[in-house]
């Protein structure tokens, strides 16, 4: 048996046994009408049955209790009936629907006033006030007691639900923050390490396939240089992840002034493959926000890595232009190679789209007509707004990144597949 039915049964049993004891001892009132006094026991049994409904059907129990109390008053009142009736009023307010919670206390007040006036009109004596006091004790008092208990119970329930809601939101925020941080670290790992590993793969292939000792030595030198640089980048990232004490300290952000270094690395990685790397920097002297500089730097870095892996021999051009938004444009030859020099994981364009979306910009990637209507070239073009970038919230930026990825995925899928681009 659950706790609630057990409590109801105990209350009903206690009231029934107490009423029988009072009746046996003759501790009852005088009948108001010519009604057999033993009917008070019937009223007692009915009232005890109503107590069994105090939680499951409180309004029904109160209605039954009103009838039982009327019979009890007419046949000579037993105090146990009155006590159980007050409990039924209390239970109807506490466990009943909101309408009953609002209506019953007012109804008891009206009943008390009307009963007092009727008693005064019939008795025509100050003693009629005792009737009003009695009605107030058995109706108004338990009703407003139930109101107070219900208010506190509802407040406690609301506080508990609010605490659960806060905990749920905190957990969702934590998961979102973890997901955003994992995506950020994935972009960083891909951008800073993929270029070095691509160069190592390309030149190790060359060293294995070319029998010229001099060419092999040059390839091994490039492999060693990129290995050292890749290990340094990995140590830096691992240090950031491990050292929780420096989590809030400002980290060094790559700047566009170092694009020449990226071109030099690309020249070393593509040495002897017929590439010509050219930079046209028309940014001007005005400084750029750090998020824009980082996004532009990583886009150039990833585009050069893709050119080394996929492009055909010829010029690889990097253009940085302003005023207005910063425009980053990287073009390279499509070539007729059946496959890339190094297999790609398909994360390059995804990472660039995310970076551009984080600053509220736009990115396009695909084949376009070459200069002066020549052969088609592969173009990566990003427009990065400069104004208001630092006020962009992380939540809005991450949502924009997801939306941008979905919007452009279908548009670029065919070009990516046909050209073997990542």
Shape: rod-shaped
Share of residues in strands: 5-15%
Across the major sheet, the strand order is 1-2-3-5-4
Helix-strand pattern, N to C? HHHHHHHHEHEEHEEH
Describe the protein.
The chain is α+β, with helices and mostly antiparallel strands and 422 residues long. It has 2 domains: 165 residues, no CATH class; 170 residues, Heat Shock Protein 90 (2-Layer Sandwich), CATH 3.30.565. Helices cover 66% and strands 10% of the residues. The protein contains 11 helices and 5 strands; from the N terminus they run H-H-H-H-H-H-H-H-E-H-E-E-H-E-E-H. The chain has a 5-stranded mixed sheet with strand order 1-2-3-5-4. A hairpin with a 4-residue loop joins strand 2 and strand 3. Helix 4 packs antiparallel against helix 5. The longest helix has 82 residues. The protein is rod-shaped. The C terminus is likely disordered.
Write the topology of this structure:
Elements: H1 3-24, H2 39-51, H3 58-75, H4 79-95, H5 98-123, H6 128-209, H7 213-242, H8 259-269, E1 275-282, H9 290-310, E2 312-321, E3 326-333, H10 348-358, E4 362-368, E5 377-384, H11 394-419
Parallel strand pairs: 1-2
Antiparallel strand pairs: 2-3, 3-5, 4-5
Structural features:
422 residues, alpha+beta, Heat Shock Protein 90, five-stranded mixed beta sheet, 11 helices, 66% helix, 10% strand, rod-shaped, disordered C terminus
């Amino acid at each position: 048996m659950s706790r609630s039915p057990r409590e109801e049964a105990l209350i009903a049993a206690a009231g029934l046994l107490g009423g029988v004891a009072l009746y046996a001892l003759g501790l009852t009132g005088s009948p108001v009408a010519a009604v057999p006094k033993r009917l008070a026991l019937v009223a007692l049994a009915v009232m005890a049955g109503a107590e069994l409904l105090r939680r499951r059907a409180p309004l029904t129990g109160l209605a039954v209790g009103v009838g039982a109390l009327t019979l009890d008053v007419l046949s000579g009142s037993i105090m146990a009936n009155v006590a159980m009736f007050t409990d039924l009023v209390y239970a109807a307010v506490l466990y009943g629907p909101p309408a009953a919670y609002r209506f019953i206390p007012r109804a008891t007040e009206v009943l008390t006033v009307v009963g007092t006036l009727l008693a005064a009109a019939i008795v025509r004596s100050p003693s009629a006030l005792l009737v009003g006091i009695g009605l107030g004790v058995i109706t108004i008092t338990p009703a407003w007691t139930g109101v107070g208990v219900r208010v506190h119970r509802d407040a406690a329930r609301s506080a508990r639900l609010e605490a659960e809601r806060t905990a749920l939101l905190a957990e969702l925020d934590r998961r979102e923050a973890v997901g955003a941080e994992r995506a950020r670290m994935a972009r960083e790992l891909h951008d800073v390490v993929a270029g070095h590993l691509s160069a190592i793969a390309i030149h190790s292939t060359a060293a294995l396939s070319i029998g010229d000792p001099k060419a092999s030595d040059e390839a091994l030198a490039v492999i060693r240089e990129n290995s050292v640089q890749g290990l340094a980048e990995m140590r830096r990232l691992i240090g950031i992840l491990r050292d929780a004490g420096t989590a809030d300290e400002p980290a060094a952000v790559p700047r566009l002034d170092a694009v020449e270094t990226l071109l030099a690395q690309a020249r070393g990685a593509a040495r002897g493959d017929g590439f010509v790397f050219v930079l046209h920097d028309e940014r001007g002297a005005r400084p750029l926000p750090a998020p824009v500089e980082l996004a532009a730097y990583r886009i150039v870095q990833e585009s050069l890595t893709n050119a080394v892996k996929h492009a055909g021999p010829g010029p690889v051009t990097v253009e940085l232009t302003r005023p207005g938004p910063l425009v980053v444009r990287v073009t390279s030859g499509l070539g007729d190679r059946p496959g890339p020099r190094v297999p790609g994981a398909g994360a390059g364009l995804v990472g660039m789209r995310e970076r551009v979306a984080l600053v509220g910009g736009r990115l396009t990637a695909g084949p376009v007509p070459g200069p002066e209507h020549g052969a088609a070239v592969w173009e990566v073009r990003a427009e990065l707004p400069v104004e208001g970038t630092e006020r962009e919230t992380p939540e809005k930026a991450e949502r924009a990144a997801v939306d941008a990825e979905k919007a452009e995925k279908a548009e670029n899928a065919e070009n990516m597949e046909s050209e073997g681009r990542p």
